[in-house]
Each structure stands twice: as structure tokens, then as C-alpha cells.
Amino acid sequence: MSRTEQDFLGQREIADDIYYGVQTIRGKENFHITGIPMNQEPYFVKALGYVKKAAAMANRDLGAVDAKVADAIIQGCDRVIAGDMMDQFVTDFIQGGAGTSTNMNANEVIANLALESLGFSKGDYQHVSPNDHVNYGQSTNDTYPTAFRLALILRLESYMTALRQLQEAFFTKGREFERVLKMGRTHLQDAVPMSLGAEFRGWGTTIGEEVDRISEARALLREINLGATAIGTSVTAAVGYPKLAVRHLSALTGVDFILAGDLVEATSDTGAYVQLSGVLKRTASKLTKICNDIRLLASGPRAGFNEINLPQLQPGSSIMPGKVNPVIPEVVNQTSFLVIGLDTTVTLAASAGQLQLNVMEPVISFALFFSIRTMERAVNSLRENCVVGITANEEHTRNMVLNSLGIVTVLKPLLGYKQCAEIAREGYKSGKSLHQIVVVERKLLTQEKWDEMFSFERLINPDLIG
């Protein structure tokens, strides 16, 4: 069974079990770019349903669309929001037309759902039209970015949760390792002693900062241009529609949306996306640094730092028996590099806007959603498959501290910088330990004073040194 639909370019035969129409078919055929349809981002599809529902409610309240038709449209939107029609959203993420194919995909699906609820056949658009009713007082240029922003707000919640859980995993390890003595390093050289727990706690703190930055960037997404229609002049929209539609959308979603004060500016502006992308890049940079640190601390096991042990997940070589690689930090590094690259995509696309519209918004949406999804998975994997299973080589790390000449810094308040430098130089040249030089040979400290100065508490709490 099929039906015939027509637009001004001609007719198309459409299988009768399909809810989208001729304009969606054209978009589907024209854009084979990523191979990823919009239904792979459920939040975006649901957001389109919310936006179309808010629009229908406003148009019904203003008498711009017949109440019976509007109510049928609202019913159709509810099914989209519920996820019932996910497989009907088939247009590619990256497309020409600034998202027109995706907007029409939503309009056609909702129109055909409304037609069925009213007892009409799919495609009988004289009763409920995708353009004249579902899209009344709207344009792709205001509905697509509004849905995009709502979808980002919804998607970011689970990503922020993943980051908070990673932060707590680092804090948990920080508490577990709080009395594990190790040597801190700067320039990859021995510096001063510290607690392994402090190192893990520091990673947790820096991840917590990212949650705050994401929250700040997400707040910028609440300003929307719904009701701007084509370029911000609200052409074809009923008087009072923009404020009313935004009010309905806020009530439906629980998100406190703000109608942009300048709809012309808001219709072409993509600054909020650049801000969010920059924060994602910032987090990716931090995760790269953390994973590099983890790989260094776990290196060896016998010819490296060997301070911590990572969970052994898989054989690491097709030629070297028994080798195990730090595969989770490695894959998080690669994900971070991808996100950093996609930030460049967002930057270029945002700067490519011309006059009253930025037609590159579809690639921005692809870049941001792909970044968030992959980062969330990487963060969860880092926590579940790596951090929670890390163990410390406590005896080894303590021996490295006590065998290091870097701990001469602890003696500086007692012996002065010049004498400590001479002691360190002698140690480097002779290979003698600090204890051998200071206590045994030069007798600058008694054994009791040495034990006091190099107790765990004094080594990791410099304020106690005196």
C-alpha cells in the first residue's frame, strides 16, 4: 500500500506505513553524509516534539489554528515526545538548508499522526497540513535552533552526572591513598614528597571545576529565538505568539527559557554553541593530562614508574607474551583528541554565518552531540574500567622517596639552600644516599632528628617542618 504526495517539485510515491512525507524523502535522498540519522540523538527528536507542541498550544490559544486541529497536533507531538515515532526521523545530521529537512520531517510526522487521530488518511493534508498548521507561525530558523538548545540542555545532564561520578571516584581513591607516600615531580624530575591520595584528590577537584563550567555554558542555551520565524521579524506569526510559545515550552519542559531580546541577532548568533564547545574542549584537555599522568604512574611495571597498578583488561601485544597495556586511558586520550578537533569544526561553522542566518548549524549540532556522547562514554569507561580498580605500590613509592635526592628540600629550613645544594650535588656525583651524606658522614643531623624530619606527616605537610 502506498500514497502519492506532491510538493512544488513534483510527486512521489510513499509507502503507507511511513509517517514522514515527500519533503523528508527529498532530504533523505539528498544528504548521505554522516550516515547518522536524527533518530540516533533521541533528545533532539523529543525536543522537536516539545517545540512543535508549544507552538500548537500558543497558536490554539491565540485562535491562529483551529482548536480541533491544534489538539490533534498536540496529540501527535505527545507521541513524538514519548519516543513512539523515533524510527520516522530519518534525515542525516549534516544537511544543507540549515535544518529544513529535519524541521519538515517533524512537521510531516506530526501532521500524519494528527490526521490519523482525526480519522483521515496519511497525506490528506487539506485537513492538517505540515506547513500551514504544524509549522504555522514558524520557520526552520527558529524551531531548529530552539529544539537544538533544548536537546543540548537535556543531553548535558547525563554528561554532567558522568563527570560527577568520575570526580567522586577520584576522591574515593584519594581517601584510600591518603597515607601512601610518593615523590612529586616537576619537569619529570624529582621534586618534593607528597601523598598519592593528594594526587588523586587533585584530579577529582579539576573534574569538579568542569561540571561548574558546563553548568555555566548550559545556562546560555536557555535564551531562544522561538517566534523569530525567518530572520527575526516574526513574519507570519500571530501577535503575542513568541512570548506565549516560550512560556508554554518552559512549562512543558521545566526549563526556564528566555525569549531573546533581539530576535534578529538571536537568529544568526551561535555564540552559545562556541562557548559550550570550548568548555568541552577544556574538559578534553584536562582528561588528556590526567590520563597521561595515569599512564606514566603505571608505566613499567619493572622498567617504569610502577607507582600504581591498573586493572588488567586484555592482552596487550600480538608478539610480546604477558604484556598488558593501559587501554582505557589510551582510548580516553583518543576521544579527547576527537573532541578537541570537533571544537575547531564548531568554531569554523559559527564564523561562517552570513547576514541574517547561520546555515551551518546542522554541522554544529553534529559536532556537539557527537562530542558529548563520546565524552560521556569515555568518562564512564575511565571510571568503571580503570579508576575504581587502581591499586598502589606503597612500599615501592616510599622507597623511591627515601632514595631520592629531591627530599633535600625538606632540610632547607635547617641547613640553608647553599649547603643543601652542595649535599645534592655530592649525591648526584657519588651515588650516595641523602641519609649517608647528612647523617652518617657529615653528621649534620642525628638519627632521631632525621626520623623526625622524614616522618610521613612532615614529608607531606611542609608547615610542620621547623
TrEMBL record:
Residues 407-460 form the Fumarase C C-terminal domain. It comes from the Bacteria. One of its GO terms (molecular function) is aspartate ammonia-lyase activity. It is an enzyme of class 4 (lyase). GO terms for biological process: aspartate metabolic process; tricarboxylic acid cycle. Keywords: Lyase. GO terms for cellular component: cytosol. Residues 11-341 form the Fumarate lyase N-terminal domain. The keyword Lyase applies. It holds the Pfam family Lyase_1. Its EC number is 4.3.1.1. InterPro entries: Aspartate_Ammonia-Lyase, Fumarase/histidase_N, Fumarase_C_C, Fumarate_lyase_CS, Fumarate_lyase_fam, Fumarate_lyase_N, L-Aspartase-like. Gene3D superfamilies: Fumarase/aspartase (C-terminal domain) (1.10.40.30), Fumarase/aspartase (Central domain) (1.20.200.10), Fumarase/aspartase (N-terminal domain) (1.10.275.10). This is Aspartate ammonia-lyase. The gene is aspA.
